[in-house]
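We were asked to recover a plausible sequence for a given structure. The inputs and outputs are reproduced exactly as logged, with field labels preserved.

PROBLEM: sequence recovery
POSITIONS: 741
GIVEN STRUCTURE:
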């Protein structure tokens, strides 16, 4: 009772001191209001929609200084600074074609075109215009990003030829650790509650510390409900190739200074069907998830508490056993029937992610403090369903502190520190220990200086990191340290943008590379580490030229990345049992280079038509000319979208046709084989049933022509099993919105 009384008093006090901030969004050419434009305060994650005349109003506790993001269809997104005591009339420039958006993965934020680092941002809905079977597959629609999978369930992203421990995954500013060193270990995050994905390609140690050698996947939750609204989104989907059924529900509310969201997801799949009609035995998987977030703002303080739980269970094709006892090894992994349920071998992964983020506004300056904890429980069951052969528990605690200091309108300084502690423990009763128990401590200090004047923006920064790694019950203990820097410049005009930056990064060797000595059934190999490995270092030069015309946009983004002390996993001629032996070796130097190209065509005479295509070229070589292993195929990805504006109750909103072409990969290492080229066609139709509760219905076909193909990065290639064949899918989404009094 006392708690309820206290909360009531706080609410009354908050309402009494709530501020009213209003304004109007207009067309810069006609000065007329833009109906239903979106207005979003980025610092407190609070949004609203303009009325039919372009007027908007916030009644809430607002900081003394904040950033507005204003967007509307066919207008250029604008970002501007504001104070609650001044109402604004904001003029948006009509823009027939625009890729611009506000990014959050860079400490400086702001408009993507004006940032010195090229960052690709797409919403989850855009990534799933052709439905992805998982988050990693959806992200692979971004140029320069591919995905290494073993079917429809378990997959991981690859950025410019790097994956696993060389790629950092960040959720709402919190680093995620989930035993990503394993070649068969998928992402620790699902799509539940996500709003967008931002990708930084290349060394990003300046921003995020060790391990961000190949790039960063920055995942952002969908925003809360708009002011004084209650939103419920329920969705369900079905896919034929693996009989996948997925259902989710998300509840959001925003009232006064408080806002929250709560969601849940369940997904289950059977074995997937190959193009020849057979099924890959034990390729089944399941997923469960819960997500909760709560936000609060009061005057110059904003706080967000977030929790995510996810459980994934993956069958391990190629190593399956029947019932609870060992079975004889099968020569073929394809079977004639499709089944669900658990079949040995399988992996069970549980992830708990919690973070508490606080922002304090001090005049035009901002202090940000984020504390978080992630817990990953990885189990692999081989012979018995009630006893795990491999049982790892990884606990990761971290704190990030960042101070944004606005020197004047042109100069900004960001300085901060990041600290992290990882503790990895093997269950004492587990039969196998691929890696020993360890404690890892990380610490880093960084400063970034930004200068902006007219069309120019210059960003430079330095950082120093220190990592201590201690292995329990062993004499092994080591310290890895490295300074890093970054310098970038961008010149952005209305019709073109030029960007150039140089950045360095480092990655301390992971314990698996140092101390592995055991069977890794999930990856079908025996791994042996090398305790003498040293830190990898990378120096990348990245340039981009973008042309933004009225109907046409063209982007070219070449890069060159010099890698020192590159660590390679290589196959030997030895076998232990029936598993080939792989060893971790150090290459003196290696080069990764290539370019991403992008084209977007949207003509005025065919206002309903969009043509988007991208091409990613990459090469990985040692200095002696030999190719690096696990370098993805060059990829051409094209989308043709037709949008419709129908007035009927049942509306066909869009048709999307996708063509993917993967070229021959003949530049392979000694332990790889070449991969043939292949092409895939996918199609989707988006419908809207315009009733009191709108219903979105999406129908699609993936791999229309039932092509038999291997991807060069896929483990299925080693099993001589083709990727999934033709698949039909349907998804339905209800969106319920109501105003709160």
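RECOVERED SEQUENCE:
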């Amino acid at each position: 009772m006392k708690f309820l009384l206290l909360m009531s008093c706080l609410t009354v006090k908050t309402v009494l001191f709530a501020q009213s901030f209003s304004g109007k969004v207009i067309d810069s050419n006609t000065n007329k209001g833009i109906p239903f434009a979106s207005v979003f305060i980025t610092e407190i994650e609070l949004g609203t929609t303009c009325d039919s005349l372009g007027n908007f109003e916030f009644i809430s506790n607002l900081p003394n200084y904040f950033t507005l993001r204003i967007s509307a269809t066919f207008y250029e997104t604008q970002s501007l600074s504001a104070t609650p005591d001044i109402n604004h009339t904001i003029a948006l420039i009509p823009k027939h074609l625009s890729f611009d958006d506000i990014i959050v993965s860079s400490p400086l934020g702001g408009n993507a075109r004006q940032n010195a680092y090229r960052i690709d941002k797409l919403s989850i809905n855009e990534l799933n215009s052709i439905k992805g079977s998982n988050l990693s597959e959806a992200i692979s629609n971004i140029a320069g990003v591919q995905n290494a999978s073993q079917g429809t369930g378990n997959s991981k992203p690859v950025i410019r030829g790097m994956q696993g421990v060389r790629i950092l995954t960040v959720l709402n500013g919190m680093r995620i650790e989930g035993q990503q060193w394993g070649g068969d270990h998928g992402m620790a995050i699902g799509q539940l509650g996500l709003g967008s994905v931002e990708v930084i390609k290349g060394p990003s140690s300046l921003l995020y510390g060790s391990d961000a050698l190949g790039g960063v996947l920055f995942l952002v939750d969908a925003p809360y409900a708009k002011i004084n609204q209650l939103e419920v989104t329920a969705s369900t989907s079905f896919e034929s190739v693996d009989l996948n059924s997925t259902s989710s529900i998300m509840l959001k509310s925003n009232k006064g200074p408080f806002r929250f969201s709560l969601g849940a997801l369940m997904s289950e799949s059977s074995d997937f069907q190959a193009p020849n009609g057979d099924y890959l035995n034990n390729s089944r998987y399941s997923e469960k998830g819960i997500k909760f977030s709560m936000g609060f703002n009061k005057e110059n303080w904003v706080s967000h508490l977030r929790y995510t739980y996810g459980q994934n269970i993956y069958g391990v094709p190629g190593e399956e056993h029947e019932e609870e006892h060992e079975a004889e090894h099968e020569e073929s992994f394809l079977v004639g029937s499709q089944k669900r349920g658990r079949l040995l071998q399988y992996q069970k992964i549980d992830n708990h992610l919690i973070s508490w983020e606080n922002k304090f506004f001090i005049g035009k300056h901002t202090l940000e403090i984020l504390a978080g904890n992630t817990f990953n429980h990885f189990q692999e069951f081989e012979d018995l369903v009630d006893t795990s052969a491999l049982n790892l528990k990884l606990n990761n605690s971290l704190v990030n502190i960042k101070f944004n200091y606005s020197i004047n309108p042109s100069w900004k300084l960001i300085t901060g520190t990041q600290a992290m502690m990882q503790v990895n423990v093997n269950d004492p009763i587990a039969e196998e220990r691929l890696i020993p128990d360890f404690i890892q401590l990380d610490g880093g200090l960084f400063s970034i200086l930004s200068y902006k004047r007219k069309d120019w923006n210059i960003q430079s920064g330095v950082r120093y990191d220190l990592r201590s790694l201690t292995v329990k019950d062993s004499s092994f203990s080591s310290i890895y340290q490295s300074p890093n820097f970054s310098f970038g410049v961008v010149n952005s005009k209305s019709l073109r943008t030029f960007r150039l930056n140089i950045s360095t990064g480092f990655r301390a060797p992971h314990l698996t590379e140092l101390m592995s000595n055991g069977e890794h059934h999930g990856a079908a190999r025996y791994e042996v580490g090398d305790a003498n490995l040293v830190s990898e270092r990378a120096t990348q030069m990245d340039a981009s030229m973008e042309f933004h015309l009225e109907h046409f946009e063209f982007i070219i983004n070449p890069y060159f990345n010099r890698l020192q002390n590159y660590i390679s996993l290589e196959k030997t001629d030895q076998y232990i049992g029936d598993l080939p032996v792989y060893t971790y070796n150090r290459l003196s130097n290696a080069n990764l280079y290539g370019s991403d190209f992008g084209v977007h065509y949207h003509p005025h005479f065919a206002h309903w038509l969009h043509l988007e295509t991208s091409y990613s070229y990459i090469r990985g070589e040692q200095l002696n000319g030999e190719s690096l292993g696990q370098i993805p195929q060059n990829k051409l990805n094209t989308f043709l979208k037709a949008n419709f504006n129908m007035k009927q109750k049942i509306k066909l909103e869009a048709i999307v046709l996708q063509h993917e072409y993967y070229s021959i990969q003949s530049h392979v290492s000694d332990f790889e084989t070449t991969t043939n080229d292949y092409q895939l066609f996918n199609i989707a139709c988006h419908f809207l049933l315009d009733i009191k509760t709108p219903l979105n219905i999406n129908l699609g076909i993936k791999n229309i022509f039932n092509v038999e193909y291997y991807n060069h990065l896929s483990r299925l290639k080693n099993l001589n099993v083709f990727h999934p064949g033709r698949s039909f899918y349907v998804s339905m989404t209800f969106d319920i919105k109501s105003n709160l009094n």
